[in-house]
Write a structure and sequence with these properties.
By secondary structure, this protein is of the alpha+beta class. The protein has two helices and eight strands; from the N terminus they run ααββββββββ. It has one domain. The strands form two sheets. The chain has a four-stranded antiparallel beta sheet with strand order 1-6-7-8. Strands 2-3-4-5 form a four-stranded antiparallel beta sheet.
């Protein structure tokens, strides 16, 4: 059985046709790309994503700054309230400079002390011995609550804009204390927090 061979000229023509088709296909691939409209759409989407990320980041920073200032103000209020409540509950109405029904931004009072060194705060007649070293709570010009005694002066809290002591007519052994704290964050926003507590003094 004889094998038939295509003439060389015919095979050459077919090879040339295949090569031309491959080049045309390759040229088509190279010429295919993004249009200007498609590039603009991609750029717009990119900037939208960047803007969204910036808004989320900015919101997070603002939340952090707000929370930091609020926690700081609350901390200052606690630092003021705890020592005042601890000492004022041991005094008596008669041992304060506040008259019944009066209000003041400062208070001076005495607390019990073992004057006769007998191990108790009661004298031989069974009455409470009061320390001659009076304690004063006040708000200075720097926005600080100050505790003053003859021996020392200490700062209880800062960023305080209001301090008020009120002794109602009834009950006579109660003092109402109002404290207001204010602080501004790095972006200029002002935050305010307040605390009110009632102290029952000794009878």
């Amino acid at each position: 059985m004889k094998r038939s061979f295509a003439p060389l000229e015919k095979r050459a023509k077919e090879s040339v046709k295949i090569s031309c088709k491959a080049l045309a296909a390759r040229k088509h691939i190279f010429l295919t790309g993004f249009t200007l409209a498609e590039l603009l759409v991609v750029v717009c989407i990119f900037f939208i994503l960047i803007a969204a990320a910036f808004l989320v980041l900015n919101s997070g920073i603002n939340s952090w700054l707000t929370g930091d200032v609020e926690v700081s103000l609350r901390r200052e209020l606690v630092k003021a309230v705890i020592p005042m409540e601890k000492e004022l509950k041991f005094t008596q109405a008669a041992q304060t400079n506040l008259a019944s029904g009066s209000t003041s931004n400062t208070i001076t009072f005495a607390i019990p002390a073992d004057i006769d060194s007998d191990g108790t705060i009661l004298n031989s007649a069974g009455r409470i011995e009061w320390s001659p070293d009076l304690i004063t709570y006040s708000l200075n010009a720097n926005g600080e609550i100050v505790r003053t005694t003859p021996a020392a002066t200490s700062i209880l809290a800062r960023n305080i804009t209001g301090l008020q002591f009120t002794r109602p007519v009834s009950p006579v052994n109660v003092i109402e204390v109002n404290v207001t704290a204010t602080r501004q964050n790095s972006k200029g926003r002002v935050f305010t927090d307040a605390a009110q507590f009632i102290i029952k003094m000794r009878n």
